[in-house]
Amino acid sequence: MVAELGHFALILALAVALVQGTLPLVGASRGDLRLMSLGRTAALTQAFLVLLSFGALTQAYVTSDFSVLNVVANSHSAKPLLYKISGVWGNHEGSMLLWALILALFGAAVAIFGNNLPDTLRSRVLAIQALIGVGFLAFLLFTSNPFERVFPAPPDGNGLNPLLQDPGLAFHPPLLYLGYVGFSVTYAFAVAALLEGRVDAAWARWVRPWALAAWCFLTLGIALGSWWAYYILGWGGFWFWDPVENASLMPWLAGTALLHSAIVVEKRDALKSWTVLLALLAFSLSLLGTFLVRSGVLTSVHAFAQDPARGMFILAFLLLVTGGGLALYAWRAPQLQGGGLFQPVSREGALILNNLLLCTLAATVLLGTLYPLFLDLLTGNKVSVGPPFFNATFVPLCAPLFAALCVGPFLGWKRAELGPALMRLRIALVVSLAAIVVAMTMIDSRSTLAALAFGFGVWLIVGSLASLSDRVRSGTLRTIPRSTLGMVISHASLGVVVLGSVATSSWNTELMQTMKPGDRVDFAGYSVLLERMDEVRGPNYIAERATLNVSVGGKPYTVLQPERRLFTVQRRQIAETAIQTNLLRDFYATLGEGDPRQGWVIRLYLNPLAPWIWLGAALCALGGFVSLSDRRLRIGAPSRKPVLQAAE
Amino acid sequence: MRRLLFILPLLTLALMAGFFAWSLTSGRDPASIGSVMVGRPAPKLDLPALRPGEAPLTDADLRTGKPVIVNFFASWCTPCLAEHPLFTRLAEREGATIIGIAWKNKRDDALAWLKKLGDPFKLAGLDLDARTGLDWGLSGVPETYLIDGNGIVRRHYRGPITERDLTETILPFLKGTVK
Amino acid sequence: MIGSRRLFFMFLSPLGERSGEGVRRPLTQPLPLAGERSLKGWLCVFLLLFTLPALAVEPSEILPDPALESRAREIGRSLRCVVCQNQSIDDSSAEVARDMRRAVRERLTAGDSDRDVFAFMVARYGDYVLLKPPFKAGTLVLWLGAPLVLLVAGAALLVAARRRRAQPIVPPKPLDEEERRRLDALLKG
């Protein structure tokens, strides 16, 4: 009954979305206030209905209602509650429903927080949001109905893929989708602006908080996914350049570029058509990622069920949304007149360089991800594009980006000099050079590149903080605008991520050893004793657990208990790593195969600065949120300059 | 010119979408890894015989002037069960020369498996340490190679052969109508 | 129909034995019911589930010579496990990955250069086995595409900036009588 209610709510939501997607558009073009205000009510109603539908599915999962096919296929009565709930989005249909839900919630948010928007702009934005929603709701209802019943109901379900039964992965999809779907708002703003033929400082100021919010969530989502890979895949890697990871990185890169170019529009009234394009691209790349993951055109480690029929539907949808946006762009964007002139060496110039490099990075990822497909279709040749390729192409491009990143904030608008900017960065320059020397001499003399990258990490941190030095000296640190503070935090935290990834991938120590209970091994100054092996029973798995006593200089230091879990329903084994961290390094242990006669394979890793990767990413998102809390964005509804309106 | 610049994103999208649609409709298997063996002389073959008392397998067995089918299998491999009757049929009805190679399989297990299911192999080898498999570009079992009378690999099937493979490629190959 | 078929697949349990990891398409067995195309689609799904995130290089494989071993690791990280999704042979526990790791170590011990080892693998599995595609005609666009975009776009921007600089900035027209009078009035308030 509840499932039918959920299904019905979904159908109603589609109807509401259709209304929301059409009438306000008509109202905006006719100047009909009544039709325009409909958008707001419809947005709130649609969000309520999708929420109801989502609640119905969650209820079916929580109560283990095995008359619903989706629950049978992805849940099991013995599963812990958390994974019953996360099971809702741990499958194709449920995750699409989550997409639709977040989309509707963002629409409602625009309706609620968009008070300061002109009526026409708001109703157009809401209508476009709703049109995207129509696509997703129709996709759900016609190809991926999560409420499909099964008769007779089986006694129990198949359980969730054990890899997904993990707290990290339980929250990874919602965060990621908040990011992906958040860019639908910037897309809607861009299309609305193209419809109105007007992009100005006020538009940039309106769109930036949405872009910033989406970007923060996406950053967190990507970081959580990478953290999950780090501890579940069992050998300390944190980024694999897998198509699914690449699919999330591309919108992140485009979104980052958008955040920067929107500043230029806001402050200098330049880069307008380019910013609109980025706003379209950030969401288009999110959709592209969805298509790649679900259509089956590429294979990937962690893809959902793939089905060519669904692939065709998403492709058509992708074409409609992206193609529609880009066609409108091709038609209307040439009329957007660029404003303020500037010299190449200036804040604008630096931001353009940033955009150029970020977009090249995104293009590298796109090309690398899709090339095997292209080549196979064209010539039948099979190639693989993996981490060594991206290390050779993506990573070097980061160098100029990072180098320029610290200089940009010291350049003035319109026209600036490099000399004085570099003078103010001299301390950062000296410190990072010293870091390179230290890395070369004291850590590892063989890897020059790692030392260089380490230097870049230090440069990012010190160089970003340097922009605060003036305020510290003049005692005005307290009055610093939140947006500036957010920028400094995000920039510096990028350095933290760089330090973490360089250190852990270049300077880690590892040991592999076959051990029996009672065996002791020396590892990087620690003495590790395999005290015992136990068999433990979890709610839905049985596991072998090793107890490793780690001591330093005879004194007990810590106990690590890596496990190998066998999930009984799916008969799958998962290695559960044990990690002890002191925030400067991870002591990482995994249990491999073995038996009492020959012993078990134990792997030990010491990953220096590894926690900084996720700490840095979290800080980076935090910087975004700090910037989001800036007064300017919260209040002070910007108004359009009459001059610009007249110029139209 | 400037106008063209604004159309560029749309063109890029069209190009990409074209590829995607092509991929979805072509029936391309994204998991397929292809094979470099096709068109080349068959890799080296030098294996002990699986069945006791038989002569070891050598390159000469692949260059007899007659087409040969080489099948890698294992008793622990489930899909091998599915294709096995097809080989039996090929051997019995078509008189095909099939060389079976047990991959990563204990001799006794492989022999017991063949005893139970029937033994269609004219010659059988044992590749316990999988070195020959590696030389043949094997990715797992079952895999099957069609080798012509001159010892050139004409086809390489990864995964079990199907009824369709049998009628569409293997039988014509044996009759010499397919190169 | 789709639903029931999926259900049927879901109830089949994957192989648990270790020896089965090297098997491709372990579920093809008695399923003449599904059409070939959709069968393949579903097999993909199951292949995904089979890639165990277990560990790869094992203690027994490690070469006594640390220099040789570290070369073997470097090579292993650049070779793709042919039955996995985007995993290197060093990260994979599949049977064939194990064989490839052993072959890499045997070649290195026999005195092969890194290049020889890669060539050895390419001769057997094609370019597919290289995680970094070779630079050749077919991969020109892959390697040069993005840098080319950067160069062209960067050059275009610089030219545009230079051209803009070449144009003298026209000083604003001096105010005429009427405007001056209005400005004075405004300034006086």
Automatic annotation (TrEMBL), chain A:
Family, per entry: Belongs to the CcmF/CycK/Ccl1/NrfE/CcsA family.
UniProt domain Cytochrome c-type biogenesis protein CcmF C-terminal: residue ranges: 315-631
Species: Reyranella aquatilis
Membrane topology field: Multi-pass membrane protein
Annotated NCBIfam families: nrfE, PRK10369.1
Intracellular or extracellular location(s): Cell inner membrane
Cell membrane recorded as keyword: yes
Name of the featured protein: Heme lyase CcmF/NrfE family subunit
Biological role stated in the UniProt entry: Required for the biogenesis of c-type cytochromes. Possible subunit of a heme lyase.
GO molecular function: lyase activity
Residue intervals passing through the bilayer: 6-26, 38-62, 96-113, 125-142, 175-195, 207-229, 249-265, 274-293, 313-331, 352-374, 394-413, 425-443, 449-468, 488-507, 609-628
Taxonomic lineage: Bacteria, Pseudomonadati, Pseudomonadota, Alphaproteobacteria, Hyphomicrobiales
Keywords: Cell inner membrane, Cell membrane, Cytochrome c-type biogenesis, Lyase, Membrane, Transmembrane, Transmembrane helix
TrEMBL record, chain B:
Entry keyword annotation includes Disulfide bond: yes
Residue ranges of domain Thioredoxin in the record: 36-175
Main location: other
The entry's keywords: Cytochrome c-type biogenesis, Disulfide bond, Redox-active center
Cellular localization per UniProt: Cell envelope
Entry annotated with the keyword NAD: no
Tree of life domain: Bacteria
Similarity comment: family membership: Belongs to the thioredoxin family. DsbE subfamily.
Protein name: DsbE family thiol:disulfide interchange protein
Organism of derivation: Reyranella aquatilis
